[in-house]
Amino acid sequence: MIPDEFLEEVARRFGYLADATRLRVHSALHEHGEASVGQLAELSGVPLPSFSQHLNRLATGGILGRGREGTSIIYWIAESTVSELRDLVCGRLAAK
């Protein structure tokens, strides 16, 4: 049996992804590799005012990594299994 603590962590991780905007951000990074905040907003089509909130949630959850490059903050995918999970779910939906 899977321990409750583990299931709580899994539920928390799914919670970070339970938003279409965050999935758009993740997909943009999956296609383009690392990118700055401005680049990511443009690639994903998300308006900047709400964008940093989504990036912070994904980074806090360990799904995205971030670092400073000069005056820019750069994001990248830190948890590759999320890409695999996204591809699996999207592939199953597309096959219907």
Question: Approximately how much beta-strand content do the residues carry?
Answer: 5-15%
Please give the order of strands in the largest beta sheet.
Answer: 1-3-2
Number of domains: 1
Question: CATH homologous superfamily?
Answer: Winged helix-like DNA-binding domain superfamily/Winged helix DNA-binding domain
Radius of gyration: 14 Å
- Fold-level CATH name: Arc Repressor Mutant, subunit A
Tally the helices: what do you get? Answer: 5
- The CATH architecture assignment turns out to be Orthogonal Bundle
Straight-line N-to-C gap: 32 Å
Low-confidence runs of at least 5 consecutive residues: none
Mean pLDDT: 87
| Total count of strands | 3
What is the succession of H and E elements?
HHEHHEEH
Question: How do the helices and strands line up, and which of them pair or pack?
Answer:
Elements: H1 4-17, H2 20-32, E1 35-36, H3 37-44, H4 48-60, E2 64-69, E3 72-77, H5 80-95
Antiparallel strand pairs: 1-3, 2-3
Helix pairs in contact: 2-3
Report on this model:
The protein has 96 residues and is α+β, with helices and mostly antiparallel strands. The chain has one domain (4-95): Winged helix-like DNA-binding domain superfamily/Winged helix DNA-binding domain (Arc Repressor Mutant, subunit A), CATH 1.10.10.10. The protein contains five helices and three strands. It has helices at residues 4-17, 20-32, 37-44, 48-60, 80-95, and strands spanning 35-36, 64-69, 72-77. The protein has a three-stranded antiparallel beta sheet. It starts with a helix and ends with a helix.
